[in-house]
Amino acid sequence: MYPGDASTEASPEQTEVSYSDALRAEVAAEQPAEQVRDIPDGAIPVPLAGTTVVITRPGGWTTATNDALRFGDWNTWAERALVAEDVPVWYGLNGGEGPTNDQVLEMLDVWQRLTVNSLGKLPTSIQRLMGMARS
């Protein structure tokens, strides 16, 4: 087999990287070595205010978790949607006050792009904060 031989070249399916895969790799590469850890199936690590938190798979969320996200109850949502070890990280941000709205919305924007989840079902007020809603 020689380089360029059709049998040694990767097929387009093997070399094509989706946008969300590329973003996941970028987020993983930005994690400090001490933050590298096992991540549950379907969970997504996302940057939040200079650290990384892991959001669990939305299919495993309860309706109460969905409601917390929909109503912008960020602390309740974090307690239910983040992996357990990241909840103290959430509350420890900004001197123990937790993340700002801007930090949460930026994290959700990255999460949405990584998971290709639609946040379109969020209330218009939250969509407007994220720059998603039409005026």
Based on the model shown, name its key terms.
135 residues, mainly alpha, two-stranded antiparallel sheet, 7 helices, 2 strands, 7% strand
Question: What's the short story on this structure?
Answer:
With 135 residues, this protein is mostly helical. The protein is 47% helix and 7% strand.
What can you tell me about this protein's structure?
This protein has helices at residues 12-15, 19-30, 63-70, 74-81, 87-96, 101-115, 124-129; strands at 44-48, 51-55. Strands 1-2 form a two-stranded antiparallel ribbon. It is built from seven helices and two strands; from the N terminus they run ααββααααα. The chain is mainly alpha-helical and 135 residues long. 17% of the residues are buried.
Q: In terms of topology, how is this protein built?
A:
Elements: H1 12-15, H2 19-30, E1 44-48, E2 51-55, H3 63-70, H4 74-81, H5 87-96, H6 101-115, H7 124-129
Antiparallel strand pairs: 1-2
Largest sheet: 2 strands, antiparallel
Low-confidence stretches: 1-15
Helix content: 40-55%
Encode the helix/strand succession as letters.
HHEEHHHHH
Strand order in the sheet with the most strands? 1-2
Beta content: 5-15%
Class computed from helices, strands and strand pairing: mainly alpha
The backbone outline, from C-alpha atoms, is globular
**Gap from first CA to last CA:** 60 Å
**What Rg is obtained from the alpha carbons, in whole angstroms?**
18 Å
Average pLDDT level: 76
The count of strands amounts to 2
Helical run tally: 7
